[in-house]
Amino acid sequence: MKPFSTQIQSLDPDTDHERISFLLSCHVFPWDLERSLEFALFRTFAVPSISGLLAETGEFTQRPRKRYDDTELILFEILEHGMNSLRGRQAIRRMNSMHGRFDISNEDFLYVLSTFIFEPIRWVEKYAYRPMSEIEKQGIFRNYLELGRRMNLKDVPQTLAAFEEYNVRYEREHFRFAPSNRLIADKTIDLMLGFYVPKWLYGLGRPFIFALLDDPLREALHIRKVSGLRKWVARKGLALHAFFHRISGEPEKPVLGTSRKRPTYPEGYRIEELGTFSSGCSGR
C-alpha cells in the first residue's frame, strides 16, 4: 500500500477534502495536528469577546476537561465519520444548537474557523518532520469551508490567501488583554500539562508552553516573556519528536480521537450529551 502522504497527492482538494483531512489527522500528522489545535484555542482566548463568553458560561473554569473533551469529540466525530454520515450530521447539529444559544458575532465565528485552518498549517511548518504540501493545505481549507457552510456562517473568504488575510487582520484588530483572557488560558494550560506531568510539576512546565506563544498572543494573555534558553529547549524537544516521527513512519492503523479513553466519559458518550446546555436542561 502506498504511504498515506503519497495517497494524498493523488486526491483532489475540491472533491476529496474530507479524505485528505482524515488522512492528515489520523495517519500523517496525528500528534502534531492535535497539538496545533490546542494552541489554536489559545489564540481564541486572546480575544475578549470570546474569552469573556467562555468565562461567563463557566465551562472552562469549572469543568475544563469536559469542555475540552466535548470540543474534541464533536470535531473528531465530524472528521472520522464525514459530514454526511449520521454521526457527522448529529455532531454538526449538536454544535450548532450549542452555539445558537449565545450571541456570537459572525466575525468571531469566522476567526475561530480560521484558526482551525492556519494553526495546523503553521505548526506543521515549524515543528513537524515536513511541511504540508499545497494539496494538503487546500484539503484542510476546503474541508473547513464546507463545515462553515453547514454552520451557516456568512461572508466566508473563498480562497486560502483571502482567509489568511482575514485571520491576520482580525488578530491585529482584536487581540488585546482582558482578565478573562488570562483566566481561561491558565485553566487550559493546567489541563494540557495534566496530560503529561503530575500537578506538582505544573510550575516547571508552564514556561515551556509559554515559549511556544508568539509575542502578540503572549501580550494579549498577559504572559511574561520567556528566556531564550527555554524557547530553545522547547523547540529542540519538538525537533526531537519530529525526528522520531520521520524514522518511525506513518501509523498504519488510524489514530482515532473518538476511540480514546477519556475520564470525562468512562462509560462512553452519546453525541447528544456533548457540550453545554441551557439552564434546566442536562445532557447527562
Can you give a write-up of this model?
The chain has 284 residues and is mainly alpha-helical. It has one domain (11-263). It is 67% helix and 0% strand. It has helices spanning 4-9, 13-28, 30-45, 48-57, 59-62, 64-81, 86-99, 106-127, 134-150, 160-174, 179-194, 202-210, 215-220, 228-248. Helix 2 crosses helix 9, helix 4 crosses helix 11 and helix 8 (106-127) packs across helix 10 (160-174). The protein starts with a helix and ends in a 36-residue tail after the last helix. Residues 54-238 form the ER-bound oxygenase mpaB/mpaB'/Rubber oxygenase catalytic domain.
- Report the order of strands and helices: HHHHHHHHHHHHHH
Q: Please tell me how large the radius of gyration is.
A: 18 Å
- Report the end-to-end length measured between terminal Cα atoms: 43 Å
Number of helices: 14
Mean pLDDT: 91
Main beta sheet: none
Number of domains: 1
What is the number of E strands? 0
State the helicity in percent bands: 55-70%
Uncertain spans: 280-284
Shape: globular
Beta-sheet strand percentage?
under 5%
Q: From the helix content, strand content and strand pairing, which structural class follows?
A: mainly alpha
